[in-house]
Every structure is written in C-alpha cells, then in structure tokens.
Amino acid sequence: MRLKFIAALLSAAIALPVSAQTIRPDQEAFRGLYKELVETNTTLSVGSCTLAAQKMAERLKVAGFAEGDITLFSTPEHPREGGLVAILKGSEAKIKPMLMLAHLDVVEARREDWTRDPFTLIEENGFFYARGTLDDKAQAAIYTDAMIRFKQQKYIPKRTIKLALTCGEETTFAFNGAEWLTKNRPELIAAEFAINEGGGGVLDPSGKRVTLSMQVGEKAVQNYRVETTNPGGHSSRPVPDNAIYELAEALVAVRDYGFPITFTDTTRAFFTQTAATVGGEMGAAITKLLANPGDAGADSIVSSNATYRSTTRTTCVATLLDGGHANNALPQRAGANINCRIFPGETGETTRLALVKAIDNPKVLVTLTPPVRPLASPPPLDTKIMGPAVALAKKYFPGVSVVPVMSTGATDAIFLSAIGIPTYGVPGIFAEADFNGVHGLNERIRVRSLYEGRDYLFDLIKAYAAI
Known about the structure:
Blueprint: H1 2-15, H2 18-22, H3 25-38, H4 49-63, E1 70-75, E2 78-88, E3 98-103, E4 122-124, E5 127-129, H5 137-152, E6 161-166, H6 177-184, H7 186-189, E7 193-196, E8 200-203, E9 209-218, E10 220-229, E11 233-234, H8 243-256, H9 265-278, H10 280-291, H11 296-302, H12 306-312, E12 315-323, E13 329-330, E14 333-342, H13 348-359, E15 365-369, H14 383-396, E16 402-407, H15 413-417, E17 423-425, E18 430-432, E19 444-446, H16 447-465
Parallel strand pairs: 3-6, 3-7, 7-17, 8-18, 9-16
Antiparallel strand pairs: 1-2, 2-6, 4-5, 5-19, 8-9, 10-14, 10-15, 11-13, 12-14
C-alpha cells in the first residue's frame, strides 16, 4: 500500500510542469508579472502598449518607486502606442547611467491560426506558449522585475539604472517609442551604454546549450522602390519595350549583384572564433576570407551559409511586386520593393547608387522608401561590456563561450546609437534552433530558459551598475 502511495506521488510530480516542481518564491512573483505583461494584448491593430506600460508602472510604484522616478509617455496621435521610462538613482553622480531597453509591442496573432489562445499564457510540456513569450516580453518582464527587486532589496547601485519600455519596434510604419524618446526626450534616456534584445543562446533539440552570443552591432534596414514606366498600349500589338520585362531584368540584376565584403571588429572576432569551431573546408575558407576579402573561391564556400553571407556584406532582396492595369493592355507601370540590410558604415544613398549601377538601365527608377532609418554604427567591442557577460556565463552556463555577433536583422538599437548611446544585445535567454515561433505561429519559450535567463540578467545588470 505504501509503495503504491509513493508511486502515485511520483506520478503526480512527473505530470506537473517543470517549473511547478522547482519554482522559487521570487520566481512565482516574476511569473505573475510576466503573465500580466504577456496577456496584455499589444498588437498594433487592437492592442495597447500604453496599457501595458501603465500596468508595469503600477508594479514599480507598489515596489516603492516615486511618481517622479517614472515617466509614462504617449502622443495624442498614437494614444495606444505609449511606453515608460523608470529610473533607479545611483550613488555616484559622476558615473553615467546605463539604460535597459525592451519593446512592449508584438507581432499580430490570429486565434484561428494558433493551437492555443495567443494572448493567454499557457505552460505545457516545459514551455510557456503565447505571443510575445520570447519577443520581447521575456526581456521586458525581466528588466521590470529586476527594477522591482532592486527597490525591494534597498539596493543602491553606483551607476543610475534606467528602464525604457517602448512600442513600435515590430512595425515599420508605426509610431516608434524609442525613436520618439531620442528625438523628444533624449535627456530622459541619456546613458553611457544600453542593453537590449538581440543576444542570447541556442539550444539543440534535447535542450542542451550550444551557443551564446552578445550582439555588438547590427545592420540598418532600408526599403527601395524599383519602378519602370511605359506608355503601354493594346495587348494585341506587343512590343519589346515592356515595363514588366524591364522590371524583371532589373530584379535579376539585383539578385546577381554581390555587395563587397567587409568586416567590423565584431564580425572579425565572430568569424575568427567560428573558423576555429567549425573547422574543415568551411573553417579554412573563413580564414582565407579574413585574410583576403577578395578571395572569390573562399567567398563561394562561406556564402553557401546564408547567415555567414549576410554577416559579411550588405544584402538586398525583392520582397513585393506589382505591375500592369488590365489583362488586355500592355503594362504602363511595374514596380517592386527591394529590402536591403545595410552593413554598418554604409548609407542608404550609397546602397541606392549601387543598385542603380547593378541594374544599369536609365529607364529604371530606384528610390528610397520612407522611413529612412539612421546609419548603422557598431558599438565598440568593449571589454567592460564583454567581460562581465563572459564571467557570468561561466557561472550560469559552464562550457558555453560568449561570441560577439553582428545581427543581420534590426532592433531599436539603431535609434540609440544615432544619439551616441552604444547598445548591446545581451546574452542570457536561450532559444530553440527554430527560434521558437517568433513572428510566426505558437510562439514559445522554454520555462527553464526564462528563469535561468532572469537570474543571469539580474546579476549582469548589477555587474554593469557597479562599474
């Protein structure tokens, strides 16, 4: 009877989610904050970042933050796209503050497409499921929770710690809170450096930690309109001079054009470590390319990996297409959107001129499509930033090295760098190799990864605040 009872208890324990078996009191409090943030819909269509910011502000006030230490902001034109800035004052005014940046908005998610309600936090088989569980409410919740715990513990950092929760990172044409702060309230977020999304780790299918990275720089995003025009005419009398054909030829030219290879301190460090890790033909090719960026044979091998190729140069790709006006008429207009990810140091205009040269047809018009984002400016590969991250990784994630990377995507860091705030995507949160359904269906994060990342980032923030 006793053995049956014990077996029943063990079966019940096994059936529980992992976090329910091991959760600490402080993790339970964090889970409540995380749940509230995730379940507050912040999509552009029907959600409200303003409401999410207000909820986080109330939690900060309950923890002891004064009204004067919290700034809620929005504009009359975008009342639902607001955010907040919270400040924990340091003991040494001569040391410049640090800034923690996270975005509250999430990509759209339709209930009929998801297996589970995308705006209800569901824990299942060791994962949290919902829109924003990883991007970027995990980090927003961890940063807010850290500020609350600092206040509760009466912790006074040497360096003032600032928290900015903003809206608009996920939508190109939406109001962007980070950009608004840099242009309208730069003094509110002024800092020696900022930490942001973009870094992290990758797990294999079994959950084993494979890689860990610190984002040190990113590309700039710029869209271009490539357009051809023609007087047109009746389709029964076709002529070679056709807007759609000219556009097609232009797009093939864009496809075949290779921007020159270049390296930053970050990408050089990344590829140097990568060459030693991967070895073989790829490792040898990377080493050759580092020594001679003009080595076409080495480039051919390295560029067979799409990520490596994107990390070595500006890339442009056609993403949208339109043309013609009637089934029985020669097209009077044809156009395409070209999405470029511009390497740090290169401008939107130099990239436009490169496209014009590649297309080599004066009848094809290439124009920048608003918004025009700032020039990508990589932060320094600073030991003051990398050192604490590496040291703490040895404690929390033994055996996994921290590698500096340049993101081939884009974050709101580009707005901060434009006003002189070097911004780093910190490691700490591990994701699955498939990137956890971010921007897609059934977004999720491993429960263990969230709690471990929270512990790591809490210590990392304190380490940065002490230097």
